[in-house]
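Q: I have 780 residues here and want to know how they pack in 3D. Can you give me a structure?
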Amino acid sequence: MRLVATGLALALLIPAVPASAKAPYDPAAYVDPLIGSLRDGTTWPGAVRPFGMISWSPTSTRGDQTSTGAANGYQYDVTRVRGFSLTHLSGAGCNPGAAGDIPILPYVGAVDSSPTADTKDAKYATNFSHANEKAVPGRYTVTLDSGVKTDLAVTTRAGVGEFTFPADQAANLLFRTSNSLNGSEDAEITIDPSGRKVAGSVLTGAFCGRRANGGVNNRKTYYRLYFTASFDQPIVANGTWKNGDLAAGSTHTTGGEGYATGADRAGRGSGGYVTFASGAKVRMQLGISYVSLAGAEQNLRTEVRRNATVAQLAADGYDDWRRELQAIKVTGGTDAQRTTFYTALYHVLLQPNIFNDVDGRYLGSDLKIHRLARGQKAQYGTFSGWDQYRAQIQLLALLKPDVAGDFAQSMYQFAQQNKGIWDRWLHNNGPTHVMTGDPAAPTLATFAAMGVRNFDVQGAFESLARQARTQNPDAELDGGCPGQCTGQRPALNTYLAHQYAPQDACHCWGGAAETLENSLADYSLAQWAQRLGTSAPDLKDRGSWWKNTFDPAVGYQRARRADGTWEPNFTPSTQTGFAQGSSATYTWMVPQDVSGLAAQMDGKAVERLDAFFHDEQGNWAVKGGSALRYDPTNEPGLHTPWLYNGLGVAWKTQATTREIVDTVYGTGPAGLPGNDDLGTLSAWYIFAAIGLFPQTPGRAELLVGSPLFPKVELRRSNGVRITVEAPATSDSNQYVESLALNGHPRTESWLPESFVTRGGRIAVQLVDTPTTWGTAPIDR
């Protein structure tokens, strides 16, 4: 209640978009990058392009140099910053997350001690007020309490920052080269005063390195980020620091921080500073690369004109976002609904991230430099698999099949460079092993089903099928367990022998969760095999192994031991055997066999699902907070509101999804219910607001819900057009009375694959009371 109340109060502080800005074809005018920066949404407001490599945004501090006070560097209630970093993840849940590379701080005052020695961020940091902060797509501006105005804009791989220092005050830029969010193995900086340049790099990685369940297993290096910066003002003084030592006049230093935390890391690291004339207005042009310093320089020269200003780059960036967001045009709705909708779409299109330089080179998972494959337009990095495969990747494939194809090819190439292993969670190029299951399989199978063709379909399928059938050498390792177990398909031979993942021998986060994840992954691979004109009876059969961890005595999924016995002391709220969720949530994770699940529940599936979304008094309970009920903040149950369609009560899907859309999501910093997880919660909202949702990973059918807007037009990048019309929609009119597909009445509560691959138009008539539409067995 406290968080919700705070969010509502903060929402009132967000200025409305001027009416003049709300042109019908300018969806970017509705985007508020601050949405999700509270309530553990873990988003950030900085400057970024669609799928951009560079994302220039604040790194905050609560007084600990080895942390940020917020996952991914920013949280709305933390108003002290120690720099503006060049790379970020959007919505990743652990604190401090990952990336946050090369924080750059405009600093007023004398640099007379090592910033690394300022372990509490008491001196070399500054406060700011949200009243002096503005974020729009492609641009971030803030005037710090020190008096410095910071204005940032970016291209895909480069950016321009303008720093206006107060009159008669010393003007410095501090480059904290080693101070990535999780620390660093090494860093370097070189200052060229006469050439007005600074260049350097950081050698880092360690996604979620401070997670207790990751431990030292994930405190490892997997990329080096290079940067080059030039200035339009002369450098009048400079220096470097390493650990506690400041060297005025020095032009070069090196040194990392390590990947420990707190006192074990504080006071370590290196960086450099440049000083300009007092009261200067400094324009800095900057490029980055994961390949080389020369690559960073080429990226900068190619993407930023020599005299380009922030205003020029920001205008181009805004136009870029406007074009991308026009992939979906909504008609009608309130200003708040459009703001929520287009900000969600903005968050979806932040990733995957372009990872190659302009010349086509990129850093592989093997830490070697590679080039794009023939026909590939971009190499993409970062895959939050366990999260994204439940909503974000479907929306990506629906709107941007060209990007989805290059993303699939990118993942395949990273796997080839990683001994054939597809990692569950890639950060940039780096396998982090985070979470559970085998999410790459349903992801690429879904891409194939939704008409994505521009990748090595056969090669990728064979690679994933091989991993599903043949145990790799890492599969018996416990390193990183439970949250970051090393191997793809851990303990596969044990899993195949038992036909479930034993809780005491699975080398995984939780045996029941692993069984459910693998069952769904195998089902999706079997669907993909059929599309390729072959059969995979073993994988098809394995798609039903979820039944082997369903305990009929209690009516729930339950952890099971290798000897066949069930884990004792079961309650539906238990997390034993599960990953970031309870048995009550995971029991529903069978979207590939809803009727089979209903049969296991002895005809009480609807009654139990009702109790999942309501409290004992029959009131809605969809905001989270109970292990026994729906949790909108995490992924395992995101599909659950749509299961009513398969149970013959489609109107309950319509009512439930509309309740979540209306009460769980909103505007203001608290507008997301939880970790956005690289656009996944945002993608769920987009689907629910449109009134459609992907039925099953590995397939392309769409379930029908309750459209929020009178008209929605989707423009797939391959030319396919999809239209959803619901002219009578309102707060009360949320129930489907009838539906027509391309002018023909349709009683089924789902839409065929052809609707996705070839396009079409549905007209939905909504009324204010529940109906029997979509309830007959043949229509489910």
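Q: Anything worth noting?
A: The first strand starts at residue 47 and ends at 48. The mean pLDDT is 94.
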